[in-house]
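Appendix B, record 7
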Amino acid sequence: MNVGLSTIERPSAPEKNACRAGTARPRRSYTQRVTSHETRPAVSVVVPVYNPGPFLRPLLDALDAQSPVDDGHDAILVDDGSTDGTGTALDRWCAERPWARVIHQPNSGWPSRPRNVGTDASGSEFILFVDADDRITPTALADLVRFGREAGSDVVVGRMRGVGRKVPVVLFRRTVRDARAPQVPLPDSMTSHAMFRRAFLTETGLRFDESARRVEDHLFVSAAYTSAHRVSVYADSDVYVHVARSDGAGAGFSTYDPETYYHDLARAITIVMDAREPGPERDAYLSRWVRIELVGRLHSDAVRWMPAGRRDAFFAAVRDTLTNAMPADIVARVPAAWRWPTALAVVATPAEFLRAEDAMRLTVAADLEGVPGSTALAGLVSPESLERAVALLGADEPLPNGRAARTPRVARIRRLQHAALRVTAVSGRLHRQLADWGRTPVLFARQTGAAVAPILAVAAFVCALTGAPGAATLLVAGAGAITIALAVRSTGGGGTAVRQLLVLATCTPRAASVREWVAIAASAVLVGAGHVADGLSRRRSVRAHAGAIVWRHPGTITLRAAAITVLCAVVAALVL
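Structure tokens (predicted):
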């Protein structure tokens, strides 16, 4: 199964057979520094790494904490041209661990090439792909290897847990040795964060498509699921922990072109269409893409409130995918709750689709019960679009009421939220910011704190000028506390240093003696020295950063920032 196709056309039979036979592919050359490693472990953890900053430490701690694995394990970290000092820190970290190695390569811009390079470098029985800002549980490798061997699995999807992120739930209700859709909702997880038998990857020629962005997991996993002899689900204990980054960075937050995105998604659809005959299993995959990446994406506030031009580009790309990549009867193949939305996505204008969406979401559910869709949408959708939608449906079905408000009160609240979003949509930049905050509330808290701390420091300065030292001291303490919190997993020390200096500036209006000025100056020098040491620490050791549990492993960067902040606050309290 070839997931590296550059077009949506299906591969010819010779191409498929050559791919399954593991035909050699051209290999890129890299400038690599690789630590020696001669053992052949049971499992290799392959990690693509690019400028992870403090978010790498929890994964490295998790690798250190792994329970013994039969026949051992190793870790292959592929540094994709990091510029934040991570490469040097990984060299030092791996040098102390014979089971870990780092490969350095020029930046490729996406995890696909690092994963392929790590796979090529591995000689293990299994490969587990892990992202640098996620982590695994202490028994993950031992559990997966034991289970994978017992079940004879080509692919093992381990139970996932989310930290600030949603993960599949139904999929992991029970352990299944031979998992097939739709009896097991495998399509719920289309990420590559699973364990793959290396011989299976070699025999099928399965590799990550290095030209794809954002959909490379779908291309890889859809081919793996449909060509594997056995896919298993391990749900006895947590294995993989998906973590939402609190800095709003990472591949998941990058913008993308809808035309390219849906072109690549259509290729994943083609893989399943080629591999499975019409029926429940194929429908399970197609329905997943309709629910989440296609019609479901049009439902999302992140797309709906985009500037009209960009929003309409999403609609056009979704419609093109539904009509050209999906089977002609896709509307009849999706679950009942998605039939009307899918039909409208195919035939209606963006404005008509959104008005219909409002009718299905902002209306009380009881008002939609048993009412034909064309009646409920009369005046919101043109008669021509309604006629074409009913033709696709095969009958004038009632609108789905599963997403409607259960009570009039809930409907009123939703309408207020809707009105507020309409106002924020006037600014595309504000809309983007709100979408990011909605996905990562911690990001909102950090950015709010970063804005509030300087305000508190300036307010303390004003209080000191006006002869209110008590209020100034309290404000300094507040600014200091926020500064310490922001130092945890900060991607740079500049903001921390500025906030510490602002706290010290509060002291200057009240400093009267030489001793007080010396204390202020000495603290300022310490802030500068701490900032320099902070930068050196980030480039020398991953241990400088906080671990997954901050109070257990705060990291030297956090401790240094906390110590200097407390010192500045004490000096301010004494002077004021």
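Remarks on this record: The longest helix spans residues 514-540. Residues 1-37 have pLDDT under 50 and may be disordered.
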